Automatic annotation (TrEMBL):
Family: Belongs to the FAH family.
Pfam families the record matches: FAA_hydrolase
Entries under PANTHER family matching the protein: ACYLPYRUVASE, ACYLPYRUVASE FAHD1, MITOCHONDRIAL
Biological process, per Gene Ontology: oxaloacetate metabolic process
InterPro entries: Fumarylacetoacetase-like_C, Fumarylacetoacetase_C_sf
Alphabetized UniProt keyword annotations: Hydrolase, Metal-binding
Domain of life: Eukaryota
Extent of the signal sequence: none
Record has Hydrolase as a keyword: yes
Organism, scientific name: Dichomitus squalens
Protein name from the UniProt record: Fumarylacetoacetate hydrolase
Family annotation (SUPFAM superfamilies): FAH (SSF56529)
GO molecular function: acetylpyruvate hydrolase activity; metal ion binding; oxaloacetate tautomerase activity
Length: 302
């Protein structure tokens, strides 16, 4: 099995100033941190890409467009399914006083949870009472599967990756700790940022040597490396593909390093108006999202 080779190195999805339409493209400046540039309202130019982000044959054209709105690099429809690993860093397990898991701890998120750069992370109304107000940040290297993967040998696992991006697995600790299954507490609408760009797998460094950080209100609260992962990206893909087809576009959020808020003394939880960003190396860059609390007397729709 051959690795996936795309025509692009970095891919962004955006609304273009020239057309007011959604496009995908390759940033003209190969070293630009597009997430930080967009946050700082600096101009971003991109060569339009003809085709789909998930099609390795998609061509980078010479047509240059201006980014008006930077979007999540994949749409919810393209992602389809979000798999997430919990407790996958040795330093995080140690800070939480939890034993290292024997197998990857898996949970799922609905695609309604996904948002892009600068979109507010919304703290739902039902978790806002004082005793339940425990929203937490989690920077994560995020893997994008590029071709159907089933029963994949560990040695070939990275051949199924089309790209990498950053994710922020916002966690609501009250409801997470109340039950053994985390899907509900990790899957609220508009709570999981991904982006700001995709970095093609063929251009990405060793996924086990990637630095990653979280900054809240100007203070670095997480500063780690994927070298501390308990289950490597290769091991994770091989394990999750056992008897299960990982479809193109599906993403895997690979866990978070030490520094999460709920284990700090005193604990640090996200609150309304917080300025939050995560950064992942390897050319991925900065993913900035404000925090807002849901307002109004909204009732759940069952």
């Amino acid at each position: 099995m051959s690795p996936i080779k795309t025509q692009w190195t970095r891919l962004i999805r955006f609304v273009a100033a020239e057309t007011a339409q959604v496009h995908i493209g390759e940033p003209v400046d190969p070293k630009l941190d597009v997430g930080l540039a967009f946050h700082q309202k600096k101009p971003i130019k991109a060569y339009e890409i003809a085709g789909s982000a998930l099609d390795p044959a998609a061509q980078v054209t010479k047509n240059i467009l201006t980014v008006k709105q930077l979007l999540a690099p994949l749409s919810r429809e393209e992602v389809g399914l979000v798999r997430c690993l919990g407790l996958n860093y040795a330093d995080h397990a140690a800070e939480a006083n939890l034993a290292k898991p024997t197998y990857p701890v898996l949970f799922y998120k609905p695609v309604n949870a996904l948002i892009g750069p600068e979109v507010p992370v919304t703290i739902p109304k039902h978790v806002q009472p004082v005793e339940k107000h425990l929203p937490d940040y989690e920077v994560e290297l995020t893997v994008v599967i590029g071709k159907p993967a089933k029963n994949v040998p560990e040695a070939e696992a990275l051949d199924y990756v089309i790209a990498y991006t950053a994710g922020n697995d916002i966690s609501f600790r009250y409801h997470q700790m109340a039950v053994s299954q985390w899907n509900f507490s990790k899957g609220y609408d508009n709570t999981t940022p991904i982006g700001p760009c995709l970095v093609a797998a063929h251009a990405f460094p060793d996924p086990q040597k990637v630095p990653l950080k979280t900054v809240v209100n100007g203070k670095t609260v997480q500063d780690g490396t994927t070298a501390d992962q308990i289950f490597s990206v290769r091991q994770t893909i091989a394990f999750l593909s056992q008897g299960t087809t990982l479809l193109p576009g599906s993403i895997i959020m690979t866990g978070t390093p030490k520094g999460v808020g709920f284990v700090k003394k005193p604990p640090v939880y996200l609150k309304d108006t917080d300025d939050m960003s995560v950064w992942v190396g390897g050319g991925i860059g900065t993913l900035v999202n404000p925090v807002v609390e849901e307002r109004g007397d909204q009732k759940a729709k069952l």
